[in-house]
Amino acid sequence: MEQKYMDFAYIYDKLTFDVEYRKMADFIDKVIKKYGIKNTSLVLDLACGTGTMCNLLSDKGYDLTGIDFSENMLGVATEKSVGKNILYLNQDICQFELYGTMDAICCLLDSINHITDIKK
């Protein structure tokens, strides 16, 4: 799977140009607040890809960590996040380690479909 994402990490945003990320970020923000979580809370974006959602949620005040298996996708995410305090980690979303707890976790688009072993 890694090779596939290495090959198109730099054009991924062009392929997903029609995804309504802003509407999704607004919805996630609404759901998080519904459960009493403040917008200064820690949010984890599993399979964060090129970091689009991390950036949008960071703009809303959340403290973001993004995890992705593809180093190239994370490279693009880091370039897009210059000046923001977003932590990107190169880990498998089925087996990852954090240095604390998160207040909310999201996993968007088709990311969950890459988990082919139900036991993971």
CATH topology: Rossmann fold
Radius of gyration of CA atoms, rounded to a whole number = 14 Å
CATH homologous superfamily designation:
Vaccinia Virus protein VP39
The first-level CATH class name: Alpha Beta
Class by SSE composition: alpha/beta
Give the CA-based shape: globular
- Proportion in β-strands: 15-25%
Rounded mean pLDDT is 86
State the total count of DSSP E strands: 4
How many angstroms separate the termini? 16 Å
CATH architecture label: 3-Layer(aba) Sandwich
What is the helix fraction of residues, given as a range? 25-40%
Number of domains: 1
Low-pLDDT stretches are none
Quick one: biggest sheet? 4 strands, parallel
The H/E string reads HHHEHEHEE
Q: What would you say this structure looks like, in words?
A:
The protein is built from five helices and four strands. The protein has 120 residues and is an alpha/beta fold. The protein has a single domain (2-111), classed as 3-Layer(aba) Sandwich (Rossmann fold). Strand 2 (63-68), helix 5 (71-80) and strand 3 (87-90) form a beta-alpha-beta unit. Helix 3 (21-34) packs across helix 4 (52-59). The chain is globular and about 40 Å long.
Write out key terms for the chains shown.
120 residues; alpha/beta; Rossmann fold
Brief write-up:
The protein has 120 residues and is of the alpha/beta class.
